[in-house]
Amino acid sequence: RQIEEDLRDAIQTDQLEIHYQPIVRTSDHRATGMEALVRWNHPERGFISPSEFVPVAEETNLVNALGEWVLRRACEEAAQWPDSLTVAVNVSAIQFSATDLPKIVRSTLDRTGLHPSRLVLEITESVFLGDPQGTRAMLKALKKVGVRLALDDFGTGYSSLGYLSSAPLDKIKIDRSFVAGATESDTNNAEIIAAIVGLARALNMETVAEGVEAMDELKLISGLGASHIQGWIFSKAMPQSELLARLQEGG
Ligand code: G
Ligand code: G
Ligand code: MN
Ligand code: NA
């Protein structure tokens, strides 16, 4: 397929770049980290969304090359930020099942000089579906490297909660569909968010409410106790150059 060939080329010739979206602490609205979101500017087709090309990478053998490219670039760029900021990198379930992932993460941290505690790996619930024992072993091995682990898009996938208490996760990212559905009049989604926050607290995990766009959502979510917020109300994802300029301004 053309898109597959083009993607292979894009990875090799640096047509990809990463945009960073701030994740802020609910209590003071200060950024504590950034999520790395890959972008592809195709020479003929223009901008192509990762929701289109990440699945292509997953269907082919490109997903590991893509994942390693994103990891390395994100760690290199995060090493230029203040030490207080973490960088969160999305890890595809296929990448996650590769046995050499902890080794790759460790050598990337070594080469870029980023302290392990500043890297967050975002995994999805689907990693718990196939091989729960292998998954726990992988999570443990990654924790040994010193990185933090976040469960992404929580609430949209596999619904067994059993794995949560036995997995060494540091944070839960509440899927934006719950945030978008939470209003004063429809309280079901707000109840779900409150329940996830309570569960995370009991398990000593942080919570990130994703996709907060509007002031009424911000008020509601803050009241529900999520420790962190990510969404357009604070910032869209931006390139490294723009992020560095903002950090320089102190904002
Ligand atoms: O901004 P947004 O359109 O970036 O991202 C769309 C989807 O692509 C999201 O589900 C997001 O998790 C995913 N995504 C973005 N960057 C990466 C990446 O580097 N690796 C993987 N596996 N998924 C990514
Ligand atoms: O699947 P994951 O959570 O990794 O991807 C995050 C996705 O959410 C990206 O596509 C990102 O651009 C998008 N996103 C981030 N903030 C907002 C927001 O406030 N509203 C909407 N609609 N999307 C957002
Ligand atoms: Mn994510
Ligand atoms: Na998510």
Summarize the structure.
This protein has 251 residues and is α/β, with parallel strands linked by helices.
Account of the protein in words:
This is Phytochrome-like protein cph2. Residues 1-251 form the EAL domain. It is a single chain. By secondary structure, the chain is of the alpha/beta class. The chain has a single domain (2-243), classed as EAL domain (TIM Barrel). 45% of the residues lie in helices and 23% in strands. The chain has eleven helices and ten strands. It has helices at 2-12, 50-59, 63-78, 93-96, 101-112, 132-145, 162-166, 176-181, 188-202, 215-223, 240-249; strands at 16-25, 31-42, 46-48, 86-90, 119-124, 148-154, 171-174, 206-210, 228-230, 238-239. An eight-stranded mixed β-barrel has the order 1-2-4-5-6-7-8-9, surrounded by five helices. Helix 5 packs parallel to helix 6 (132-145). It is globular and about 50 Å long. The N and C termini lie far apart (44 Å). The relative contact order is 0.13. The mean pLDDT is 93. The site of sodium ion has 5 residues, from strand 6. Residues 35, 90, 122, 152 line the site of manganese (II) ion.
